């Protein structure tokens, strides 16, 4: 029995041993699997964390880039500021004369009062269109206590100043060879009347104290314009006065004085400088060497625009280039209105009937302050004089030629004269009808 029992116990031990080994192997395998599982899980978590970190970093970089781009865009928008400009038109005409027959015509009305306004009716729209309009008044306004007269010593009624205001002029140049026709009293009263009417006088002075500033400064729609006026001649009447007295009454062309005046102007920081010069020789068709020299001098000093009068005929216009500037100059704009013509001066004097409105377009950059002459254009005019009796009183009108040629009320005889006048003006100016600097 015992044998039998012993024989039976032997396989049981083996089975137990094998079972233990199996359990150990299974446990080890489970541990390995568990370890692998947790390792993989850890790696997955770490990978996910790394991915999230990378993604977060990438997003932050993207946000930074977007912010940088946005800032750059804003900077570019600040850098690229839209430029804005101020534009004005400066218009100028030549000599406004008051010959005896013109005085007679101005009083030829039922009231018997002097009235020159109808003379300017046809050009009024052109002058009113300007932001600044200048004319040379080649007569004095000494008052009725001194007899009204034409050539050689001019004295016109104050009504002529009324007519200039009516036409649209705001600045009247009074420095010319007839400034002293009614002596110092007439010179001073002329400037006084012009200013009383609401216009500015430049070139002569109401009083000696006014001559301390020998120019005008005008704000024209935000553009600061300086205006000077000078004369080359005083018809010898200046010999009755001392140099100091003349200097306190009227601006005469003198390089030293003009240099001083321009320096004083520049101290006031104008945007543009205009000089109106009464110079040259009467009835000559071209500027002389003195005119050219003075124009070049003014250009070298920084003057931007030069208007000229006195010859009573039209001269060329041009640009003068200097180190300091590029200057537009119209050497002579002819007669705006007078009694000078073929009928009074003879053959070959038809050009004295011709005038021109010179329009200068000026542009200012509001951001930089840079101001320049942008464009120049010309409106040729002709002085119409008519009487059914071919004697005084006549009717005087300043006609813009292009428009007048379309007027059915103007006779063919006068239209033929205007056509010749127009061509003469265009040829003489020797510039296109519109000269753009763009």
UniProtKB/TrEMBL annotation:
What residue stretch is flagged as signal peptide?
A: none
Q: Which CDD domains does this chain map to?
A: MPP_CapA
Start and end residues of each Capsule synthesis protein CapA domain: 89-340
Question: Pfam family of this protein, just one?
Answer: PGA_cap
Region annotated Disordered sits at 44-78
Which InterPro entries does the UniProt entry name for this protein?
Capsule_synth_CapA, CW_Biosynth-Accessory, Metallo-depent_PP-like
Instruction: Indicate the family of this protein.
Output: Belongs to the CapA family.
Which protein are we looking at?
Poly-gamma-glutamate synthesis protein (Capsule biosynthesis protein)
**From what organism does this protein derive?**
Alkalibacterium gilvum
